[in-house]
Amino acid sequence: MAEPIRGIFVPNVVPLDEAGRIDEDELCRSVDWLIEHGVHGLYPNGSTSEFTRFTPEERRRINELVCRQAAGRATVLAGGAEANVRETLAACEACAGFGARAVAIVAPFYYRLGQEAIYAYFREIAEQTPIDITLYNIPIFASPIEIDTIRRLAQFDRIVAIKDSSGDIAAMSRMIAAVRPEREDFVFLSGWEPGLLPSMLLGAVGGTHASANVVPELVRRVYDLAATGDFQAALPAHFALVEFFDTLLAVGEFPHGFRVAAELRGLRIGPSRQPQGTAIGPQERERLSQAIDRALTAIS
User: Fold this and answer.
1) Which residues of 263-284 are buried (b: 16+ CB within 10 A; e: fewer)?
2) Which end of the chain is more exposed for a tag (fewer CB within 10 A), N or C?
3) Where in 11-65 does DSSP place strands (E)?
4) Strands, DSSP E only, in the chain?
5) Which domain holds residue 32?
């Protein structure tokens, strides 16, 4: 039986060296650090990983390294999004070979497509993939996957879950209501920190959260309390997580605040390949440091 997809996944930032190359040793060290600090799973090549800023070969290498370093200690939900069906299926095949549990795929990006085209895209992948698929709904970056399309796609055995980063709790409620009666084992994951607790109240079983790169302990606290049904007790940690998330989003261009904050926890992340239009100076670093302190104090 395949291991369940549930808990807190981290769309891990990718460390780069001074020449802008993937720092493979530090990537592996960060995997160990994240697992030691309580994440249930890893999500290489997500949006926080800046997957579009790497070549297809680099994306394969990132997935390979994370799968190898995790070595069964955490579930790997590997990012497999590419620009067309052929390349996406090649990514699926590679991830299956690396030992990933499933592959997360966004709807086609750049070109805005209608729902029938989105359905046809995922259907073709579902009929040929050697590995389970998690739909990734992130309307800010890619064509939105509407609820009826999700319901139709959930009829394919290989499509086992959805990560929703829309931040729309009403849509999450309607999505679960539409899909779960027809597919009881279908997995729903939150992809937006303010939505983790309310999504779990509705029936989600975890999430993939950028903040877990920096304060996995706090994200776990929200999850652990929600998973036991103690939503009232989870509220203080939830509000602390929302404040932390909002603070990091406001620093530089996404996901730079998360990269800098991860460095403040002792990881060597380095600058993004995307030049920053907003300099991150001492005041911003101090602001991030204080945000980390508040987040960790919230669970002490």
Assistant:
1) bbbebebbebeeeeeeebeeeb
2) N
3) 41-42
4) 7-10, 41-42, 75-79, 102-106, 132-137, 159-164, 187-190, 206-208
5) 7-232
**pLDDT tens digit string along 9-33?**
999 999 999 999 999 999 999 999 9
Give yes or no for residue 1 having a pLDDT over 80: no
Question: How confident is the model over 59-115, as pLDDT tens digits?
Answer: 999 999 999 999 999 999 999 999 899 999 999 999 999 999 999 999 988 888 999
CATH code of the domain in which 127 resides = 3.20.20.70
Burial level of 91, CB count in 10 A (0-12/13-18/19+)? buried
For residue 23, CA distances in Å to 18, 33, 213 come to 9, 15, 16
Strand 41-42 to 75-79 pairing: parallel
Contact 295, 241 (CB under 8 A): yes
Q: For the chain, first and last CA: distance in Å? A: 37
In a domain, 295, yes or no: no
The answer as to whether 189 is a domain residue is: yes
Find out whether the peptide bond into 11 is cis, omega within 30 degrees of 0: no
Residue 154 covered by a domain: yes
Sequence-distant (6+) residues with CB within 8 A of 154 are 179, 182, 183, 186
